[in-house]
Amino acid sequence: MNIAVAIDHVPQDALPSAGEAGPAPRRIVVAYGFWIFLLSDIIMFAALFASYAVLVHSTAGGPAGAQLFNQGTVAIETACLLFSSYTCGLMSLAINSRRRLGTYLGALVTFALGAAFLALEIREFTNMIAVGATPERSAFLSAFFTLVGCHGLHVTLGLIWLVVMMVQVAVMGFVPTVQRRLLCFSLFWHALDIVWVGLFTVVYLMGVSP
Amino acid sequence: MSAAQHERAPGDRPTREMQASAPSEFLVYTIGLFVALLLTVTSFWTANTTLLWPGGVFLGLAVLAIAQMGIHLVFFLHITSGPESTNNVLALAFGVLIVFVVVAGSMWIMTDLNQNMLMPLGGSISMPMRH
């Protein structure tokens, strides 16, 4: 953290207004813009959550959540995503101190845990479809597959993004552009975990408890 | 122009000179992981136990989920209440407001509509048809 060392002895006054400080560094602007995107993404998830909550009892005589959901699988999925969020944080520490090996290791573990989560979710979906619980069976199942599938799609995109970023680190090194993209990736990955917290609570735990 | 005079990017940790006694970054992530794990385990226990009053389980799960989201925001995304992340917190507050309006509003309206749809079966329709 070179910046932290350099400004160690500068007395900390109140933050100057935007006019005095000049334009913000690129890293702050980019990350703030991505933060706005993430919040709008979460608002989209809120709409899906709302439709799920409205339709959760509209099973049309089909299977309800309590008969379909397996809590063991959900617990493992939750653990996978939580630990991958943690290793993603460790990866961003390695990026900030420009340790290549640590970055690759963090990315590898993050990718493996994310892929394990995705594999479990796909297995769950195929099992449900095999017993006739397809999205067209009832409004409840349509809402379920839309909500959980949308999260799964985000995880898939995140995994692809992570691979692309590792290629960029290998080819371009830790240039500022790559570091900004990696910061955005870690924001994205942590936000996905936050959405999953709401998801396993609302869909799986509230769905099976009486 | 040093970077410390600006707001902080979301996801970046506070620089050291702001909190000289701040714990190391590795420790922050690890504490976050353990607290989040604890809350997750409590959530799964709450949903499956028979010890608790069933009516309170729903509320308990909601509280645990919101607490865990807060833990993720503070320990993983490094959202603080400091002056250097005012913009991030304000954007987050607006997002939370919209999420609340969308979810609570939809559920309120749709519950209301469901009850009104069921009413004609009871026989008493208070509003005359005006066609």
C-alpha Rg of chain A (nearest Å): 21 Å
Overall shape of chain A: it is globular
Q: What structural category characterises the helix and strand content of chain A?
A: mainly alpha
Number of domains of chain A: 1
**What low-confidence regions of chain A span 5 or more consecutive residues with pLDDT below 50?**
1-11
Rg result of chain B? 23 Å
CATH topology category name of chain A:
Four Helix Bundle (Hemerythrin (Met), subunit A)
How would you spell out the order of helices and strands of chain A? HHHHHHHH
| Low-confidence runs of at least 5 consecutive residues of chain B | none
Helicity level of chain B: 55-70%
The gross shape of chain B turns out to be: flat
Largest sheet of chain A: none
Mean pLDDT of chain B: 82
CATH architectural group of chain A: Up-down Bundle
Tell me the helix content of chain A. Answer: over 70%
Q: Most extensive interface, residues per chain?
A: A-B, 63 and 59 residues
Backbone structural class of chain B? mainly alpha
Q: What is the straight-line distance between the termini of chain A?
A: 51 Å
Element order of chain B: H for helix, E for strand = HHH
Structure notes:
The complex is a heterodimer of chains A (210) and B (131). With 210 residues, chain A is mainly alpha-helical. Chain A has helices at 2-6, 18-21, 26-55, 65-68, 71-96, 100-130, 139-172, 176-208. In chain A, 36% of the residues are buried. Mean pLDDT of chain A is 89; it is low at 1-11. Chain B has a domain at 7-84. In chain B, 64% of the residues lie in helices and 0% in strands. Chain B is built from three helices and no strands. Chain B is flat. The model of chain B has no long low-confidence stretch (mean pLDDT 82). At the A-B interface, helix 1, helix 3, helix 5 and helix 8 of A face helix 1, helix 2 and helix 3 of B.
List the helices and strands and how they pair.
The complex is a heterodimer of chains A (210) and B (131).
Chain A lengths: L1 H5 L11 H4 L4 H30 L9 H4 L2 H26 L3 H31 L8 H34 L3 H33 L2
Chain B lengths: L24 H24 L5 H23 L9 H37 L9
